[in-house]
Design brief:
Chain B: It is a multi-pass membrane protein. The complex is a heterodimer. By secondary structure, chain A is α/β, with parallel strands linked by helices. Chain A has a single domain, classed as 3-Layer(aba) Sandwich (Rossmann fold), CATH 3.40.50. In chain A, 37% of the residues lie in helices and 26% in strands. In chain A, the strands form 2 sheets. A 6-stranded mixed beta sheet of chain A has the order 6-7-8-3-9-10, with helices on both faces. Chain A has a 4-stranded antiparallel beta sheet with strand order 2-1-4-5, covered by helices on one side. Chain B has a two-stranded antiparallel sheet with strand order 1-2. The chains are: A alpha/beta, B mainly alpha. Chains A and B meet through helix 2, helix 3 and helix 6 of A and helix 8 and helix 9 of B. The structure holds adenosine-5'-triphosphate and magnesium ion.
Chain lengths: 250, 306
């Protein structure tokens, strides 16, 4: 059974239709890459899954998104739980200007008051999963803003892993980073995809080919083609997909 | 070849304008620097004269409460004790800041987080209006509305620290609010997204992330307000009672450093002890504003580091 499914998902920013009927299914323990030219609606789609579009006052959504048999847009859903189960990593590393420890513990402290020992342990586990523990373990009380961009991004990944999500959404997580930091993030994600459902937006087609299991090609609010990454890159069925992959537009 | 060389060596019009602009800028800076230094020197030299020329002890100046520079006491010493005024000045300043801060924060949060469009559109002009009202008007309202009300409630004259605090609270509210709004607006928007995406509610985001991240600048806002309250003379003078007495409560007449200066400076002769004593009060004000400034810088630095 799929972890996340969209059914005839439309999103309007005022009059502008940014998503024009998306039907997709995302499997557990797979990494899916969303690719497509700028403005095709990748970020918009990603932000539907954790309801971040609620922040946009003129955004209107029709259709449904099923997360483990629960309708994400339904009235009964708890936004707090939803966003803890579906975590998001942004393009710009965005740690809070607090200590590394406080950053990672932030989500944990929101819902319940856990004993300090439990928080300590979850923070350590999360930082290890995000493969940044060795670099920060002696600096947990230092301000997270003082670390390199790549380290900050992995601290942000740890911050969402600490609340035990099922799905991780990443919106161009490496596009603000140098190649070495990007490679480290990619390695981290390769580790994480064994346990999580990962959806990553990227403009870097090599990156999509390197790390994703499935790829979705979007154009102008529509899904043009989706399938296993290998197949989509080697033998695209659609002419537009093939043009995009060959750098003819985008 | 030669023509390029000539051109390169020839100062262009833009370069000359550059030099001209620099000269003007430096001149202006020099004039201001001279002005500031002479003011500082003038106040300091006059203020210190009380102690060096008139041989008043510094300790009695800051520890005694009887203030009567024109008269000698039983021991033949002039009565120059500024403690009562310092206590009153600090008390009204701190109380005004304590009352103003929650209101300023609430208004600032309303304008930046809760209703950024509507809130800012309505409240911005209100705040600007409050800033634009001259302090004599605040004092006048204090005198005709606040003082009688306090008199009615607590008896006495109604003048004193409470009246001064209430007037100063309204006067510093726009300063603290405006600077708090700036502090909150200066926060990067991604902090909000990061917190919401982790499941935080809007209120949790405000008090666990935004207020915390803005703390250094919010403190600066409060200190700016305190500096303004500490230095305000006219409005306070109208409601404080102007009796140089140690305050025995919030509703007994007393005086601040500034109110004493404005009421007395016209009654003294330059160079005499009573005049020098007033300059000493001015020196205290100057030192305090310096301390406020240093505090603001210190907090600003800490904020950048963290
Ligand atoms: N808040 C908004 N209000 C109105 N229109 C918006 C808003 N956000 C995005 N859009 C529009 O919706 C479309 C899809 O935007 P989106 O950000 O999802 O694209 P994207 O595929 O992520 O692009 P990029 O690769 O540049 O990040 C664009 O045409 C954009 O202009
Ligand atoms: Mg985008």
């Amino acid at each position: 059974m799929s972890m996340l499914t969209t059914e005839n998902l439309h999103l309007y920013y005022g009059q502008k239709e940014a998503l024009k009927g998306i039907d997709l299914a995302f499997e557990a323990q797979t990494m899916t890459a969303l690719v497509g030219p700028s403005g095709c609606g990748k970020s918009t789609l990603l932000r539907c899954f954790n309801r971040m579009n609620d922040q946009v006052s003129n955004a209107k959504i029709t259709g449904s998104i099923w997360f483990d048999r629960e309708n994400v847009n339904g009235p009964a859903i708890s936004l707090v739980t939803l966003r803890q189960k579906i975590g998001m990593v942004f393009q710009q590393p965005n740690p809070f200007p607090f200590s590394v420890y406080d950053n990672v513990a932030y989500g944990l402290r929101l819902a319940h008051s856990l004993p300090k020992a439990v928080i300590d342990e979850r923070v350590e586990t999360a930082l290890k999963q995000a493969a940044v523990w060795d670099e920060v373990k002696d600096h947990l009380t230092e301000n997270a803003m003082g670390f390199s961009g790549g380290q900050q991004q992995r601290i942000c990944i740890a911050r969402l892993l600490a609340v035990l999500p099922k799905v991780i959404l990443l919106d161009e997580p490496t596009s603000a980073l140098d190649p070495i930091s990007s490679a480290k993030i990619e390695a981290t994600l390769m580790q994480l995809k064994r346990d999580y459902t990962i959806i990553i937006v990227t403009h870097n087609l090599q990156q999509a080919a390197r790390i994703s299991d499935r790829t979705v090609f979007m154009l102008d609010g529509n899904v043009i083609e989706s399938g296993p990454t290998q197949t989509l890159f080697m033998t695209p069925e659609n002419q537009q997909t093939s043009d995009y992959l060959n750098g003819k537009f985008g | 070849m030669t023509s390029i060389k000539q051109e390169l060596r020839h100062a262009s019009k833009a370069t000359r304008e550059d030099v001209f602009g620099k000269v003007i800028t430096y001149c202006c800076v020099a004039v201001i620097a001279v002005l500031v230094i002479s003011i500082l020197y003038f106040i300091a030299s006059r203020g210190i004269a009380t102690f060096t020329v008139n041989h008043v002890s510094l300790w009695s100046f800051i520890s005694q409460t009887s203030w009567n520079p024109g008269l000698l006491d039983a021991h033949g010493q002039p009565q120059i004790g500024a403690l009562a005024m310092m206590v009153t000045s600090f008390t009204v300043t701190i109380l005004a800041a304590i009352i103003a801060t929650p209101f300023a924060l609430a208004v600032a949060l309303y304008m930046t987080e809760i209703a950024p469009n509507r809130g800012a559109r309505i409240l911005q002009p209100v705040i600007e209006l409050l800033v634009g009202i001259p302090s004599v008007v605040y004092g006048f309202i204090g005198l005709t509305v606040v003082v009688p009300y306090i008199r009615h409630l607590f008896g006495g004259t109604g003048m004193g620290i409470l009246a001064g605090t209430l007037v100063l609270f309204v006067m510093i509210l726009p300063t603290v609010t405006t600077l708090s709004v700036d502090a909150l607006n200066a926060l990067p928007g991604y902090l909000r997204d990061a917190s919401l995406a982790l499941g935080a509610t809007r209120w949790q985001t405000i008090h666990k992330v935004l207020l915390r991240a803005a703390t250094p600048r919010l403190l600066t806002a409060v200190i700016f307000g305190m500096a303004r309250a500490f230095g305000e003379a006219l409005a306070v003078q109208m409601v404080i009672g102007n009796a140089v007495l140690m305050p025995h409560g919030l509703v007994t007449p007393t005086a601040t450093l500034t109110s004493q200066l404005t009421t007395q400076i016209g009654n003294t002769v330059m160079g005499t002890l009573p005049n020098n004593a007033l300059w000493s009060l001015a020196l205290v004000l100057l030192v305090m504003s310096l301390i406020f400034n240093l505090l603001i810088r210190f907090i600003g630095k800490r904020g950048q580091l963290s």
